[in-house]
Structures are given as C-alpha cells and as structure tokens.
Automatic annotation (TrEMBL):
Belongs to the CoaE family. It comes from Ginsengibacter hankyongi. Keywords: ATP-binding, Coenzyme A biosynthesis, Cytoplasm, Kinase, Nucleotide-binding, Transferase. Pathway: Cofactor biosynthesis; coenzyme A biosynthesis; CoA from (R)-pantothenate: step 5/5. The lineage of its organism: Bacteria, Pseudomonadati, Bacteroidota, Chitinophagia, Chitinophagales. One of its GO terms (biological process) is coenzyme A biosynthetic process. This is Dephospho-CoA kinase.
Length: 197
C-alpha cells in the first residue's frame, strides 16, 4: 500500500480534493481534525500540553482553545513548542490509521506535511495549487473572515509556492481547470504505481 500526502496553502482546496479521492473509494486521514481530537482525547498528549502551558489549557477535561490560542498568539517559540507536542502525536496517529487500511493507496491530508517532517513517512506528496488571490477569496468566504485575517494565517505557514515545489504531483485548482478530471488521472497513476510494488 502506498502512502500519499495531500497538501497546499490555506484555501487552496486540499479538503475539496481529498473529498473527491474519498468518492473514488480512497481512505483519507484529515490531519487537522485528527490533531484536534488527539488534543482532547489522548491522555499522554494532554498531560504534555498541561505541563508546558499550565492546567488552564483544559477546562473540565476539554481543551481550552481560547486560553491556548491567547497564550501562543504571535509567540513563535510557544507555537513551536505546541507543534513539537502535537505534530509527533498526529504523525503517529496517521501511521497507526494507515496500518489498519487495505486500499491500494491512502491519503493523508495536511497543511503542514513538510513543516512537520511527515513527508519522510510518505511515498508521494500531492500539492494543490491555486492563485493566491483566489485562495484568499475562498478562505474569506468559507470562514467569514477578512482578507487581513487570511493573510495573517498564511504568514504562519511555509509559502504556498515553496510547498508546491517540494511535491511530486500538482493539482491546479484555479477557475479554468476542472478538479475531477485531474483527480481521476492521478488516481489511475497512483493505482498503477501501487500495483507495481
Ligand atoms: P484550509 O487549509 O484553509 O483548511 P483547504 O486547502 O482545505 O483550506 P478547501 O476548504 O478545500 O481548502 O477550499 C476552500 C474553500 O473554497 C471551500 O469553501 C471550498 O468549498 C471552496 N473551493 C475550493 N475549490 C473550489 C472549486 N474548484 N470551486 C469552487 N469552490 C471551491
């Protein structure tokens, strides 16, 4: 079974592309959702977060998202510390999930594949590329936030173009090219590669 990463910038269309692969019967691990679940349910991770950020990081056993985001807000070192706890747990969670799958290939959808080093565990990485202005417009509409808020989020990630350069395959999500034929072509290619070894 091949392990395939799916990444791209904020609002590029990663989740949209991942849903098309799911329609084709390919299992998808959503890293963002999984990390939120782990922060609420994984006792070992919860203890590490409490040790690093204080008991206020949890309220009645639930992650106190507001407290934690205030603490790490614009503090590069604290964000790094939080990521150093959450990323390994998420990577381990993905690997464990993959072991239970039987499809010819599986997909891990994650914004921070290269930033977290999880590309080391993957056979290929697909990048979703979309013009930055369009990504901003889509993220603004989806989350009902301002252009400045989207840009502030973007500033916290590796820039989308550098990410795309590191990918093995690229899906273009602009207003000209259709997603479904591109995903179908890549699906055929990945099935072929998975059948070879
Ligand atoms: P993030 O990293 O911010 O979670 P993402 O890369 O997963 O974003 P999506 O959530 O898939 O991006 O897409 C952003 C928004 O744009 C969504 O509301 C989605 O429905 C819409 N969108 C994405 N691609 C298209 C498209 N080709 N046509 C129309 N709408 C699209």
């Amino acid at each position: 079974m091949k392990r395939v990463g799916l990444t791209g910038g904020i609002g590029s269309g990663k989740s949209t592309v991942a849903h098309i692969f799911e329609v084709l019967g390919i299992p998808v691990f959503y890293a963002d959702e999984a990390s939120k679940k782990l922060m609420n349910e994984d006792e070992e991770l919860k203890n590490k977060i409490k040790k690093a950020f204080g008991n206020n990081a949890y309220l009645n056993g639930e992650l106190n998202r507001k407290y934690l985001s205030d603490v790490v807000f614009n503090d590069h070192e604290k964000i790094k510390l939080l990521n150093s706890l959450v990323h390994p747990a998420t990577i381990e969670g993905a690997l464990h999930w993959m072991q239970g799958q039987t499809a010819p290939y599986v997909i891990k959808e994650a914004a921070l594949i290269f930033e977290s080093g999880s590309n080391k565990d993957l056979d290929y990485v697909i990048g979703v590329k979309s013009p930055v202005e369009l990504s901003i417009k889509r993220a603004m509409a989806r989350d009902n936030i301002t252009e400045e808020q989207v840009k502030a989020r973007m500033d916290k990630q590796m820039d989308a173009e550098s990410k795309i350069r590191l990918c093995d395959y690229v899906i273009v999500n602009d207003e000209q090219q259709m997603l479904i034929p591109q995903v179908l072509a890549l699906h055929e290619k990945l099935l072929e590669l998975a059948a070879k070894n």
